[in-house]
Specification:
Order of helices and strands: HH
Oligomer: single chain
Mean pLDDT: 81
Largest sheet: none
Transmembrane segments: 101-119
Organism: Mariniradius sediminis
Keywords: Membrane, Transmembrane, Transmembrane helix
Structural class: mainly alpha
Number of domains: 1
Protein name: Septum formation initiator
Number of helices: 2
Helix content: over 70%
Number of strands: 0
Length: 155
């Protein structure tokens, strides 16, 4: 039981922790990409707003205005995705910490159960050895008694 507990507390939490850390790294990279996209979109918005101020209201400026609106919407969407990914990263970090705690709780318990089981097994084995020794002595006595009875009958 102890060995099973050790194996499960080492294998499962470490496996889960590794998967969570890999996913966290992936999410952090996505956050960086989204942040870069937000910055670039903001630069484009600023550039287009300057263009509109310089050129006034024209057909081309209306197209540019629509472009600015699209970029602003894209920035809002990217910002929401970034916030969601940040919260997911925080949740994953909490689960990673939980698996570390599980490891340090159950691993020592598993080691304790292994040693406790070994000590109890050794005591039971010693007891069984003593019982076998007594049974052997009892059988030897019975064999000696039967041999003694056979020799008395022959005389």
């Amino acid at each position: 039981m102890g060995i099973l507990l050790i194996v499960l507390t080492v294998y499962y939490p470490l496996k889960e922790k590794q998967e969570l850390e890999l996913k966290t790294i992936e999410l952090e990279n996505e956050v960086k990409t989204l942040s870069y996209s937000i910055q670039e979109n903001q630069k484009n918005v600023d550039r287009l707003q300057r263009f509109l101020k310089e050129n006034g209201k024209t057909y081309e400026s209306n197209i540019q205005l629509n472009e600015v609106e699209k970029l602003n919407n894209q920035n809002h969407i990217n910002q929401l995705q970034t916030e969601r990914k940040h919260s997911e990263i925080q949740i994953r970090k909490r689960y990673t910490r939980l698996y570390e705690i599980m490891f340090w709780i159950f691993f020592p318990i598993g080691i304790f159960l292994v040693f406790f089981g070994f000590i109890k097994w050794k005591a039971a084995k010693t007891f069984d050895d003593n019982i076998l020794k007594l049974e052997n002595e009892k059988l030897e006595i019975e064999v000696d008694r039967m041999r003694g009875e056979k020799t008395k009958k022959k005389k």
